[in-house]
Write a structure and sequence with these properties.
By secondary structure, the chain is α+β, with helices and mostly antiparallel strands. The protein has helices at 2-5, 13-19, 25-28, 67-88, 126-130, 139-147; strands at 30-33, 37-41, 51-55, 92-97, 113-118. A hairpin with a 3-residue loop joins strand 1 (30-33) and strand 2. The longest helix is centred in the middle third of the chain and has 22 residues, at 67-88.
């Protein structure tokens, strides 16, 4: 509800993340800004450690990216999936792109890939009964735990 009812920032958050200084990454939940794509925690996650991978270029659809940037972004998705699963001991992952508002894209004008860790038995009755999600970990704790998983990848990393 915070996202739905809250004020939306001016401009594109992913473009802001791509140009931010590493000192601001923690506040923005950015784990890595690579040459062609970035990795950040979703501020309004479906699950703990829900990550987003977005190209640095402001495009709405995968077909709008030059092939080298698409390839780089998808390779990063692959790395993120592997490292996220290891870091969280997830039993599985949901990986997906919502293209356009009708498909569920909350930020439709800048393509991004959701990488969501899942565990056996992780769904519960709270969303159905109380329209509430239970998150077993604060975003800052997820950030601290995941930060090391991306520290060796090419690009800019958070600094304290």
């Amino acid at each position: 509800m915070e996202y739905i009812l809250g004020s939306k920032p001016e401009g594109c958050i992913f473009c802001d993340f791509a140009t931010a200084k590493p000192e601001a990454y923690r506040a923005k939940l950015v784990l890595l800004v690579g040459p062609h794509a970035l990795v950040c925690l979703n501020r309004f996650p479906f699950s703990s450690s829900h990550l987003l991978v977005a190209p640095r270029r402001h495009v709405a659809e995968p077909g709008d990216l030059p092939l080298d940037e698409y390839d780089s972004t998808m390779r990063l998705v692959r790395l993120v999936a592997t490292r996220l699963k290891q870091a969280t001991h997830a039993d599985g992952l949901n990986i997906g792109i919502n293209v356009g508002r009708p498909a569920g894209a909350g930020i439709a004008d800048h393509m991004h890939v959701h990488v969501v860790p899942r565990w056996i038995g992780d769904s519960n009755f709270m969303p159905v009964i109380a329209d509430t999600r239970v998150m077993p970990e604060y975003l800052s704790e997820s950030f601290d735990r995941l930060r090391a998983s991306f520290a060796d990848l090419e690009g800019e990393h958070p600094v304290d």
